[in-house]
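Kindly review both lines to help learners:
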Amino acid sequence: MAHTLGLTQPANIELPKISFAAKEIDVAEWKGDLLAVGVTEKDMTKDENSKFQNPILKKLDGLLGSLLAEASFEEDFTGKAGQSLVHRLPGLGSKRVGLFGLGQSASSPAAFHGLGEAVAAAAKTAQASSAAVILASSECPSVMSKGNTAAAIVSGTVLGLYEDNRYKSESKKPQLKSLDILGLGTGPEIEKKIKYAEVVSCAIIFGRELVNSPANVLTPAALAAEASKIASLYSDVLSANILTEEQCRELKMGSYLGVAAASANPPHFIHLCYKPPSGSVKTKLALVGKGLTFDSGGYNIKTGPGSSIETMKVDMGGSAAVFGAAKALGQIKPSGVEVHFIVASCENMISGKGMRPGDIVTASNGKTIEVNNTDAEGRLTLADALVYACNQGVEKIVDLATLTGACVVALGPSIAGVFTPNDDLAKELFQASEASGEKLWRMPLEESYWESMKSGVADMVNTGGRQGGAINAALFLKQFVDEKVKWMHIDMAGPVLNDKKHVATGFGISTLVEWVLKNSSS
């Protein structure tokens, strides 16, 4: 492997292997290190003698000599979302028993995903090698199917256990080897859902690792190599085509190459293609991701407090979502759908050969752009990527990008903004996000704002005024999409990072996989 600046290389750490199983056994008979009970606030109601009324809690408390009820009272555990209570109590086959709050009611993937994360955290603390999860209330899975409930718990557990320690000199391995899911049924249907959750969760981890990798390690060449590895791993359904700078020049990608010009690391235009192993293709889709492995801002350099230049390795979060989805779909192998994964990867740097404010670049569809801000570079790379995607003959395109700070100001750190002129496509993506638990919010494409994007000397400028910045960016991208193609832009600048932990979230992967499957005939 080539030397990086600083001689940094990520350690090759294997993901923990956990055996998941759905079982129907009496909760009192389960033997292991940690028995985790998901409870709503309603489940925690007690009678006049301070005894649980919920049948499962009543049974457990009876075997534990009322210690569970006493502990919940003393520690003011009421079942609120995020609360947990774990004790080592004699009387059961499990060493420890824990109550994990689900809030007033649990009816969303996010609630059960959170339960899985909380169980993972408790298992780490207790150094448990085996755990089981049961829901106290039989009402919990009524809104979601039992299979989807189990899948959300599995996903939360896998992602909750995972820590990206590749760049740390020392790291601890989690001890958890098995997790049993009790009371949600057994059989091939729930096993299929659990396997699906494992596949998507591992893809999310892959995406997180891409975003977490520093720019001195994850260059455009390294990102292209990671994408090629996915295609090699699932070569029965995936192929890779990496375009060089010269090939991009032949395709007249002047907008993309203008951004890439200043960097010592050459650009790599990455195109993966998924084709089903058998049967005819009924739908062709494209997933386009922004792939700036580092964004200095160019000559409009990011400076001062709040510029976040030190976090600009995350500016390829859109590409991580796209390639994470490719990894999952390579394993799931949906039928009837062809998917193109497209990323125009480069760095936005500063040098004597770099793009200047005021320069005019020409995109591959012939449209000219006056660059009035070199720090609005993502949309310039996406312009040529969107033209390329349309040329693949696709019917629908979803692009994902850490595009604007304006979207973060509007929606905060955990919600992505969605822009599309097509209501049917919006409906499809929102159904997919409901299944994944990721948060999207539809924003307006206000055509009158395009006035601020007009140039006196070119077809357009690349930024408008400060007001409505995320809308202006979406309107810019729209200029590079064929009118016959259904298109959506997702601005994920907020949810790409977990602000509290300062690590990547893997946002978008789960929703993209759900969306592709909804468009397949599987």
Q: What stands out?
A: The chain is about 35% helix and 20% strand. The chain has a mean pLDDT of 95. The chain has two domains: 19-187, 202-519. The CA atoms of residues 394 and 440 lie 24 Å apart.
